[in-house]
Design brief:
This protein has 550 residues and is α/β, with parallel strands linked by helices. It has four domains: 160 residues, Alpha-D-Glucose-1,6-Bisphosphate, Chain A, domain 3, CATH 3.40.120.10; 114 residues, Alpha-D-Glucose-1,6-Bisphosphate, Chain A, domain 3; 143 residues, Alpha-D-Glucose-1,6-Bisphosphate, Chain A, domain 3 (3-Layer(aba) Sandwich); 79 residues, Alpha-D-phosphohexomutase, C-terminal domain (TATA-Binding Protein), CATH 3.30.310.50. The protein contains 19 helices and 19 strands. The strands form five sheets. It has a five-stranded mixed beta sheet with strand order 1-3-2-4-5, with helices on both faces. It has a five-stranded mixed beta sheet with strand order 7-6-8-9-10, with helices on both faces. Strands 12-11-13-14 form a four-stranded mixed beta sheet, sandwiched between helices. Strand 4, helix 5 and strand 5 form a beta-alpha-beta unit. Helix 2 runs antiparallel to helix 3, helix 11 crosses helix 16 and helix 14 runs antiparallel to helix 15. The longest helix has 20 residues. The radius of gyration is 24 Å and the shape is globular. The protein starts with a helix and ends with a helix. The structure holds 2-acetamido-2-deoxy-1-O-phosphono-alpha-D-galactopyranose and zinc ion. 2-acetamido-2-deoxy-1-O-phosphono-alpha-D-galactopyranose binds next to loops. 2-acetamido-2-deoxy-1-O-phosphono-alpha-D-galactopyranose (NG1) binds next to loops.
């Protein structure tokens, strides 16, 4: 009874916006920050219920990533460190859209019963809170706290301003009984980076290389964290621009999304940077792309996107695995034949997929959204996933990691310092460096840098792994984006009727043409992607398909 009145009272302070239907999309709820207070308050409740149900620590992140500074958003981090279980998404939608406190209460009561959530005030729940640098974050965080404290037994731990991947990492660490602080995070990724650098082959180490990378922090949280991290590294010089401290506006002409979609130099970069290795983070630092400024006469860049980061990782992992299993006269050890797989979406450049398949790798496709990619990658011993936009990571299965640790111990007794043991150590370090919960721009940046140093490669050399097919992405504002539905990892539009045939007809007009449309999960738009043998053809294919959609 007391619980009911607390819920009613708390929610009467947060009325939902009128005339909007909110939906828990690929990245939680996202909207203009001004309408999100009730939503965040309710997600606070939801997070508390999730914690009660799982009897574990969960996370709540307030961010709108690469979207404009006036937007914001909220999502839940599951106990594993991954995204909220998809089974709970419909309930999240219902909660967010309940019109009155009474309607909200009855939804909760019903759900608690159906899910058998221990809701007697005897169990405790704990929620870690994080937010990005958006000015609206503070008041939304307050709403989340009030939502959480309207559930008996639930406590919120405010971790302040964090990157999205830091919060995911901390939730995962907490539930494994490990230290879950920011210093622990920085310590783990910087020390595993140093291990990788120490293991660089001597003949490469002695060559003088260029160990400087210039990073665009999108005027968000990533730049500010990188300023701390960079001082913990040796053998790598990081210059951070667009740190948010210089008065620049978040994601405005800066950041990974802008750089990847527009393919032009971000603010703060220009003709002085010709040929230099540059990288861009997005607003919450879960995406990373690299680029170079090719000439000083244009604003165009050479983009090194998520697909190429994936390819670099795949090359390195595959190489280390083959050193590890090259055990001379020993019988091939079945366990050491790790199942290595790659996961992409339809946005992956066709040239990258060809390249990865030519390496002999298994490549599978999922719909857009980290949760889909992550789930598939987790089915391999080592699963590498990336979205072209720069979100991705490498997942190691627990069982393969234990095998690797044991193997490393064996090798350190039998042949310490051998090539095989070094390969084992490198793979172990990658497993510590790279975020196992979600794609993380900071840890991916360090892994890219470590691999480039290991191979003695320039960014130009890396970029030449394969040549991207020209592509164009457009978005079309529509009244109802749900009118478009898709199948086959979003490559085929099933509705509205006839639209796929029209797309096919346009695509057929272009050499190496490939084109698909899908409703965005984060914006009210239909996205169009086109690829063809020339930029003009890709542009024209995208344009004509956008007209069909309109
Ligand atoms: P939507 O809006 O569903 O296309 C975008 C990105 C996703 C993912 C999410 C979450 C593209 C084409 N889509 O999703 O890859 O990053 O945002 O932030 O880049
Ligand atoms: Zn992001």
């Amino acid at each position: 009874e007391e619980q009911r009145s607390l819920l009613l009272q708390s929610s009467s302070l947060f009325s939902p916006p009128q005339g909007v239907k909110l939906s828990y999309g690929t990245a939680g709820f996202r909207a203009d920050a001004s309408i999100l207070r009730s939503t965040v308050h309710r997600v606070g409740m939801l997070a508390a219920l999730r914690s009660l149900k799982t009897q574990s620590v969960v996370g709540l992140m307030i961010t709108a990533s690469h979207n404009k500074v006036t937007d914001n958003g909220v999502k839940i981090v599951d106990p594993s460190g991954g995204m909220l279980s998809q089974e709970w998404e419909p309930f999240a939608d219902q909660l967010a859209n309940a019109q009155t406190p009474e309607a909200l209460l009855s939804l909760i009561t019903e759900f608690v019963e159906k899910e058998r959530i221990p809701f007697d005030g005897l169990q405790s729940a704990e929620i870690l809170l994080g937010r990005d640098t958006r000015p609206s974050g503070e008041s939304l965080l307050e709403a989340a706290k009030q939502g959480i404290s309207s559930i008996f037994g639930a406590i919120a731990l405010d971790l302040g301003i964090l990157t999205t991947p830091q919060l995911h990492w901390m939730v995962r660490a907490r539930n494994k009984g490990k230290p879950a602080t920011e210093p622990a995070y920085f310590e783990q990724i910087s020390s595993s980076f140093r291990c990788l650098v120490d293991l660089i082959p001597n003949e490469i180490k002695s060559n003088k290389k260029d160990n400087t990378v210039v990073v665009d922090g999108a005027d968000g949280v990533g730049g500010e964290k990188l300023e701390v991290l960079k001082n913990m590294l040796t053998g790598l010089v990081i210059e951070v621009r667009n740190t948010g401290k210089g008065g620049g506006l978040l994601n405005d002409g800066v950041g990974a999304d802008y750089v990847q979609k527009e393919k032009v130099v971000p603010r703060g970069f220009g003709s002085n940077d010709v040929g230099i290795r540059c990288a861009s983070l997005d607003g919450d630092a879960d995406r990373l792309v690299y680029f170079t400024v090719p000439t000083n006469s244009s604003s165009k860049i050479d983009l090194v996107d998520g697909d190429k980061i994936l390819s670099l990782f795949a090359v390195f992992i595959k190489e280390q695995l083959s050193i590890l299993t090259k055990d001379g006269n020993e019988n091939p050890n079945n366990n050491s034949q790790a199942r290595l797989g790659v996961v992409q979406t339809a946005y992956a450049n066709g040239a990258s997929t060809d390249y990865l398949k030519n390496l002999g790798l298994e490549v599978i496709f999922t719909p857009t959204g980290v949760k889909h990619l992550h789930e598939k990658a987790a089915q391999f011993d080592i699963g590498i996933y990336f979205e072209a936009n720069g979100h991705g990571t490498i997942l190691f299965s627990e069982s393969w990691l234990s095998w690797l640790e044991a193997r490393n111990n064996e090798l350190s007794l039998a042949s310490a310092g051998s090539e095989q043991q070094k390969a084992a150590l490198r793979l172990l370090s990658v497993g510590k460096l790279i975020n196992q919960a979600v794609g993380d721009a900071l840890s991916c940046l360090l892994l890219v840098e470590a691999i480039l140093q290991h191979k003695g490669w320039s960014i130009q050399k890396w970029n030449e792994l394969y040549q991207d097919l020209p592509s164009r992405q457009l978005k079309v504002k529509v009244v109802d984006r749900t009118a478009v539905t898709t199948t086959n990892a979003e490559t085929i539009a099933v509705s509205p009727p006839g639209i796929q045939e029209a797309i096919d007809a346009e695509t057929a007009k272009h050499l190496k043409g490939r084109c698909f449309i899908r409703p965005s999960g984060t914006e009210d738009v239909i996205r169009v992607y086109a690829e063809a043998s020339t930029q003009e053809a890709a542009d024209s294919l995208a344009d004509s398909v956008a007209k069909i959609v309109d």
